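User: quick one
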Amino acid sequence: MAGHSLECDDLQLSSPDMERTIGIGMLGAGTVGGTLVARLVGESEAIAAKTGLFFDVRRIGVRDLDRPRPFTVPEGTLTTDLFSVVNDPSVDLVVEVMGGREPAGDLILAALQAGKPVVSANKELIAARGPELIAAAERAGVPLLFEASVGGGIPIIRPLSETLAGERITRVLGIVNGTTNYILTQMSELGESYPDALAAAQELGYAEPDPTADVSGADAAAKAAILSSLAFGTWIGIDDVYHEGIESVDPLDIAFAQEFGYAVKLLAICEQFPHGVSARVHPAMVPIEHPLASIRGATNAVFIEGPSIESLLFAGPGAGGHPTATAVLGDVIDAARETLAGAQVAPRIRFSPGEIVPYEKVSTAWYVRLLVDDRPGVLAKVASAFGDVGVSIRSVWQEGVDAEASLIVVTHRAVEGDQRRAVELIAGLDEVVEVASVIRVLGDAS
Amino acid sequence: MAGHSLECDDLQLSSPDMERTIGIGMLGAGTVGGTLVARLVGESEAIAAKTGLFFDVRRIGVRDLDRPRPFTVPEGTLTTDLFSVVNDPSVDLVVEVMGGREPAGDLILAALQAGKPVVSANKELIAARGPELIAAAERAGVPLLFEASVGGGIPIIRPLSETLAGERITRVLGIVNGTTNYILTQMSELGESYPDALAAAQELGYAEPDPTADVSGADAAAKAAILSSLAFGTWIGIDDVYHEGIESVDPLDIAFAQEFGYAVKLLAICEQFPHGVSARVHPAMVPIEHPLASIRGATNAVFIEGPSIESLLFAGPGAGGHPTATAVLGDVIDAARETLAGAQVAPRIRFSPGEIVPYEKVSTAWYVRLLVDDRPGVLAKVASAFGDVGVSIRSVWQEGVDAEASLIVVTHRAVEGDQRRAVELIAGLDEVVEVASVIRVLGDAS
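Assistant: Done. Structure below.
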């Protein structure tokens, strides 16, 4: 029980049921974990009134005992011995919000093997070791929930794996990294360069001092792996997700995109093809009338397509201590409820073996901006280079008539390998000074 | 099992587990029910591969045995004896998609009392008899799920009652009726009159031949009752929801709204005030930059606000056989999974007694359009009428200078009762020809 006040407050509730008190063990108490503990301690009566469940934070594993925390817990609750949290017999349910693959993975396995439900916010770990952890949860007959691993406070894991369990989902598109969406929004609305927009994002705390995980697309790739696996029922690990970041996006291309009716977004794209599934992350030109085009700043959004549901949009805060802690808390309540029901819980989703389409075989349309010498015949040569590898051109624009003119080519869909070969051929042409940029263009689902 | 093909297909699955076959009893096989049966029969292997569960539709209760159906089931599956569906010992789980309060309510109670999980899409029944049905499910220890009752294919019930169970939700705004949103979109984009837009919606099948339930706001009111009850944990019945429809919305007011930066939407508004909760449905002017302002056509959307999650948007198809059947199917899978786990299932949400704020005491800003004689002093008289009842004016526009001028007043927030008294006073002024229209203006959450 979370403090002295429950003794009297209990009386107001229908049943001050000790069997409905759940001992929580926390692994990590940083931004998300600290917020969660503060809420479990401070709002325990409100949570009990709404859910009938009492949560008591009994052990908190941290790296540094002396760091200031946004909560007060009894002496001895904090420990640096993380396995002691998992093994504490008074801990009924383990919340892992420490991040990273290890030791988080082994701690979760130990908790599951001890028959304790686990709630995790760790996208990197789930995307890397998901099948192993899910199988361990199934063997133990306890829930392993990870709503907070994708989209922060946006409920997306549960809708995908429960409400839409009977849907043949064809495609999931996501803006699942707030840092990069913030930077691209600033570049788009203020015309800022990438370095300036990144610096502004770091100033405001939207980007880390080392922004690599976000700007490289690696964070989004882990989330794409999870979304894709749940949407299609074929497990895709993080290493199966092709990713490109936003480091080379030029404000000039954003401006051209706007002119042609597109917004540039870092998209996670999960697709079900007839011959397999694919998940990838890269900057993409999104038609301005698409709901994802208007997702601004650090907001995240996930867009789900299927034959029956047509399309669904979920949007909200994709990160931050409070939204993410809300998602974790929802899982904690759900896991506790299932466990108290005394069930040997069946897994929410089964994964079947399936083909993963290699990225070189995935078909997309490309926007290619070339710096060219403005000589007669350059367009014909560029066009024939595309034609030589079987990539057909949808439209061409020429900008500027000086020594350095820009030629902008938008192709029809063709497989990645062919598009790359075309661009290599073009880069080798005498008339082409530079392939200044390449951005894929979002089309309809296959 | 859904047909002969399972004998061989089973072998491909991890365990052709007869204990994982669930006998389904259907109450209703119309648009939603017919689609659902067709999918349960036609996609049973795909569902089994993804969930590990086999569904076998064993009894289907209908009004008319001879009506053509989009599915084929064995002779004798269809019956007009609805209670025989519920009581059939081979039926493990009951799906109620017949609509209406009775006999649906008594059928559901009978199913729950027999220990059978129930999935319902019946907003009207849940909004009218929710607490009684939920209590019966709790006593029986089986799930009663109703994801499809609000927002068709949009997952909203489960996110509200599970993922957000730990959030102190402050406000829920919803466009939860596709018919009226379609009509308002046509009026707004084409300048059509209400009767013309309604006729077009009827032509396209977006509106019923008798459109009353939709256009009066009654359908949205039932959904507002459910959303509000789940969001705040205080039960609000359908009779506690004030509602106004769109019948008197004038394209002129939509045009004025656009000029001032607003869109006119039929909104369900659920609010948590310090002294209680409120749910209501009425046309409202929504600031054009609000995500709900850009929800077009028959699309539905729900916008949830809370201190931790800030705001979440869910949007998608709010009606139609396929999307709604997907939501029902998600519930069927979830209920089957819980039941097979052998659990005495704890309810997902508890309702506590709480105050319901009467609508006369709810505070909103008003847009009032008056037809006035263009005499000197009319503005002063109108302003002092508002002032007399304590309603303060935010802005005034005067349009036209002929005998019939329009005076448009937008007030600050004031309680409904005072706003109404002000408008009554104004209607009685000699200079006022007519109070042509009144539309509430959406403000920030209290």
